[in-house]
What we know:
InterPro entries: CysT_permease, MetI-like, MetI-like_sf, ModB_ABC, Sulph_transpt2
Structural class: mainly alpha
Low-confidence stretches: none
Family: Belongs to the binding-protein-dependent transport system permease family. CysTW subfamily.
Keywords: Cell membrane, Membrane, Molybdenum, Sulfate transport, Transmembrane, Transmembrane helix, Transport
Distance between the termini: 39 Å
Order of helices and strands: HHHHHHHHHHHHHHH
Domain ABC transmembrane type-1: 58-261
Strand content: under 5%
CATH topology of the largest domain: MetI-like fold
CATH class of the largest domain: Mainly Alpha
Number of helices: 15
Subunit structure: The complex is composed of two ATP-binding proteins (CysA), two transmembrane proteins (CysT and CysW) and a solute-binding protein (CysP).
Amino acid sequence: MNSLLRHKGWTWGFRTTILLYFVVLIVLPILGVYYNSFSLGFKNFAESISDPIAWKSVLLTLRLALVATIINVVLGTMIAWVLVRYKFPGRSLLNSMVDLPFALPTAVGGLMILLLLGPGSLIGGAAEALGLEIVFHQPAIVIAMVFVTFPFVIRAVQPLLEELDPSEEEAAYTMGATGVRVFRKVILPSMAPGMIGGGMLAFSRALAEFGAVVLVAGNIPGRTLVSSVFIYGEVESDNPTGAAAVSIILLTLSFLILWLINMAQMRGRRA
Length: 271
């Protein structure tokens, strides 16, 4: 069997299949977006991306995605620490539930947030009594972004903590270092690549979120209209060029983030 798989014909077939898969499902759709953006000329493209509503949706998306990423980095690191360093009843169940946002349709996540925090819910009613508005406002969008990007930081930090040599911490304690200093000088540098890489992936994923956000956002331009919902609205309004123009901004940001992650990983291997 191994000799058959090593045959040049099989090798060429596997490589060709993988290449076709990559081109058809990734390269062609991306090229299609860029083509549609400039199909009516550069002037039309410039007008589409300079539309105030479009820019406000992009800036709002960037700001809320950054807030969601910061929350994910902090909470994700803490949860990864608990899952690796402590043993308690239900630990395995909690560890398996971390990946739940990957398994659930994002629209289901948005519905869960709507039912839990909506005006008719117990929490939503209590928040309204205190003068706090959650659903159909920016807090709900941030919560939706946090939900769908929840596993990234946890799964990036966990293996780094598991690979950390306990003797390094013990040596630091033996030399008289305090717990805070050990964490800052020994543990945090080991977790930092996972925190940064996971945070950047979470940020990139939050930029493109639609299913969970569309159910809890009020879609008010400049206040709750995010880029993904704006793109959907442009398509529904029979303006695919405008939708593609905003999509290019998100695509370019995602490419930049992935390039930064790869550069950071390459430097980490060299170090």
